[in-house]
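Backbone-to-sequence.
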């Protein structure tokens, strides 16, 4: 019988997100980078699991949908409410995040080394997504020391200012560095995302992918730069697009070793992720595959 255990774990948060568009339109839905990424990885053909603390107030119907999609509810438990975010989008494409329950709550609801079970350490791939700053700075180097997995690293854009050196150091602990354009240009001190990607490549990762939102992404590997265009889509809720991209990229790259093919798969899945509120488009797509 084929092994059905996950070979990729997406590590991050489970959240409830309210997105506010420039015209004032508000959409609230279940989200969380670990959920977006794991569902996207499954849609890209990966055997993906997730690792994220679950609070006391996850509605039973949503829990059932996650379980039906193959996302195990055997997660670290916290005697706390679920993380809630308000994500405000500006007309220029920028966004700001507001943690409704505060930074300390977010820290406690993020993944720390003590939360990581042996099955996760034994996986072939680990995607570390945006969490609280202290949790992420502690977790990635710890995973590097305790696992032989390929490590994929995403960032949390709200922690850039004043923490540049610590966040740059994460690039040296991962195999694939996956910043957004805003994160890349800020950390590298340049407006040129290609120059930023080349700078990160010099810090140690084998692959650097800079996410360019509706313009797609660029991939730097072995000195070569490849631009991958995004799919045209009218977004309903773009909150999880980057997380979905990272999950799909990690799944395909882990399976094939081909970073450009992984990026092409990732832009396709990211385009699906924005077609409805929160994780609903990805949950629906995974459910359809399960029924097929």
């Amino acid at each position: 019988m084929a092994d059905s255990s996950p070979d990729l774990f997406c590590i991050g948060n489970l959240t409830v997100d309210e997105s506010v568009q420039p015209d004032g339109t508000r959409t609230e839905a279940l989200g969380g980078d670990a959920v977006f990424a794991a569902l996207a990885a499954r849609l890209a053909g990966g055997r993906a699991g997730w690792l994220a603390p679950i609070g006391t107030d996850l509605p039973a119907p949503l829990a059932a949908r996650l379980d039906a999609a193959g996302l195990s509810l055997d997660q670290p438990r916290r005697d706390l409410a679920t993380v809630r975010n308000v994500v405000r989008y500006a007309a220029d494409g920028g966004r700001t995040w507001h943690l409704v329950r505060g930074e300390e709550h977010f820290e406690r609801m993020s993944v720390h080394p003590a939360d990581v079970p042996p099955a996760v350490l034994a996986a072939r791939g680990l995607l570390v997504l945006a969490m609280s700053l202290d949790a992420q700075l502690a977790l990635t180097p710890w995973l590097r020391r305790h696992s032989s997995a390929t490590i994929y690293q995403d960032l949390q854009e709200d922690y850039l200012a004043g923490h540049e050196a610590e966040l740059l150091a994460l690039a040296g602990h991962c195999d694939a560095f996956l910043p957004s354009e805003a994160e890349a240009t800020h950390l590298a001190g340049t407006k040129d995302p290609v120059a930023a990607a080349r700078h990160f490549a010099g810090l140690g990762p084998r692959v650097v992918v800079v996410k360019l939102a509706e313009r797609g992404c660029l991939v730097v590997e072995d000195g070569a730069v490849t631009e991958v265009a995004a799919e045209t889509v009218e977004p309903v809720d773009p909150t999880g697009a980057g997380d979905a991209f990272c999950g799909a990229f990690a799944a395909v790259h882990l399976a094939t070793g081909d970073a450009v093919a992984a990026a092409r798969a990732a832009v396709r899945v990211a385009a699906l992720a924005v077609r409805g509120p929160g994780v609903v488009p990805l949950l629906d797509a995974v459910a359809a595959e399960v029924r097929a």
